Amino acid sequence: MRNYIRQNRIAILSVLAVAAYCFMVVSSFSGGWDSFRLGYQMGLQEPVSVEEQVEAVPGSTRHVNLRPERGYLDFPSDVLNFKDNSMLKARTRLIYVALPQDFDRPREVVVLDFLHGVLMFGFFIILIVLPVKFTRLVMSVKKEVIFHRKNINRTRVIGVLLILVYLFTVLSSNINFRINQILFSIPDYSISKSYTGATLLVAGIAVLIMAEILSKGLDMKSEQELTI
Prior knowledge:
Helix content: 55-70%
Order of helices and strands: HHEEEEHHEH
Number of domains: 1
Shape: elongated
Largest sheet: 3 strands, antiparallel
Radius of gyration: 25 Å
Number of helices: 5
Strand order of the largest sheet: 4-1-5
């Protein structure tokens, strides 16, 4: 009975972990989904000339984080309220910019875009490896094989990969910030970095701590078996 309850508990926790992982992946791509849809829809258009094609279809889109130059108490923009035709003060934190196809990117931007592409490739590899390691770990635990060197190594790999995802996210944010600084200058606004939460960093460190606890438990188990 206890084994049945334990296995069901592991199954429920595994489902929750998979759901949380899927949410993390979807959240990671949600920021670029609008840009993807915009590029796809614009690509379906059929301009009648090369000039119209250059004007109609953007070469790429970028999201730019902004903050008021005079601080967060400032509302530098004006918005027309159609309800009563009044002008309201406002500010924006994020804009999407469509760059034309003939846009000439500075050399530094080309290099930074290449580095960002390398980061994204590594990010995709981690997204593939993580669920594989996690699935093998869960299957081993369900078989009640817990204090085993392979499980400890898998746990360590998962912890390191979570920290790498966090570092890749931070580097990606900094690269995008630098590119936006080079390309744009918005009146009354300054370019800002996108917010990067530390949840993955904390989770990675917690998993590494758990791996060390398992390793210590395995050593104690081995010592007890030798003593007996």
